[in-house]
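Reopening this ticket.

The earlier resolution said the output was attached, but the attachment link was broken on my side. Pasting everything inline this time so it's all in one place.
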Amino acid sequence: MSDTPTLGEDLKRLEEIVRRLEADDVPIEEALAIFEEGVGRLRAAKLRLAEAETRVVQVLRDTAEDGTVRLEPLDG
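Inline output:
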């Protein structure tokens, strides 16, 4: 089993970090530490999303009869 958090776990933790940073009673040292953690998790999440997009485009390219890529919005 991998120690790398899933995208869902990263997003959940980012929500927790935002809530904590919005609190009035966060010491500056803690705020800085969790801010740094949040930036790291955000970078990791963006990378995973970019990799997923690349995979989707490759699958579409591989399945298109004429070799073109047709991108459509995911919402319909």
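Reporter confirms the inline version is readable. Helices lie at 7-22, 28-63. The CA atoms of residues 53 and 76 lie 17 Å apart.
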